[in-house]
Amino acid sequence: MSQTQILLYNFKDEDRLHQIRRYLNRHRISVRMVQQPEYLESLGFLFEIPGFSKNPVFNLGKNFQEEMMVLKDFSSEQLDEFLAFFKENGLLPVNLKAMLTPVTVHWDSLKLHDELMKEHTEMYSHK
Predict the structure, then answer these.
(1) Quick one: CA dihedral 78, 80, 35, 92, positive or negative?
(2) Contact, 57 vs 28, CB < 8 A?
(3) 67 vs 4, 7, 63, 72, 101, CA distance in Å?
(4) What is the pLDDT of the chain when averaged over all its residues?
């Protein structure tokens, strides 16, 4: 069975990050904090999936500030428990989140961020 993993972006609140990391460690979920210079790498490369190589293009300042997370190989039960953990601990939810898919595995973090922002805006602009 492949390793359950998560990519985290822009978690600036140390206490919040500590609580999230403690939960993930307790559940043996591998965590990678993604930094801005890595935003042009494919998600497949960031998750160290065989067959994905480093992008030779250097990220010259493309950035985003929002928290984002990408989950790999979470069962629906694991996902439900992880999301419930935020509620139970009074942590604000992460608005930009995605499961790794056969399509998104080829995307870089900027493309995923843009798509999630679009979806989030569409979802909340119809209220």
Answers:
(1) negative
(2) no
(3) 20, 11, 12, 17, 20
(4) 94
Tokens of 19: 């609580």
Instruction: Assign 1 a pLDDT band (cuts: 50, 70, 90).
Output: very low
Across 1-126, the runs of DSSP E, i.e. the strands, are 5-9, 30-34, 68-72, 96-99
Instruction: Select from 64, 52, 51, 61 the least CA-distant residue to 109.
Output: 64
Which is it for strands 5-9 and 96-99: parallel, antiparallel or unpaired? Answer: unpaired
| pLDDT band of 28, cuts 50, 70, 90 | very high
Greatest pairwise CA separation for the chain in angstroms: 43
Two structure tokens written together for 44: 């497949």
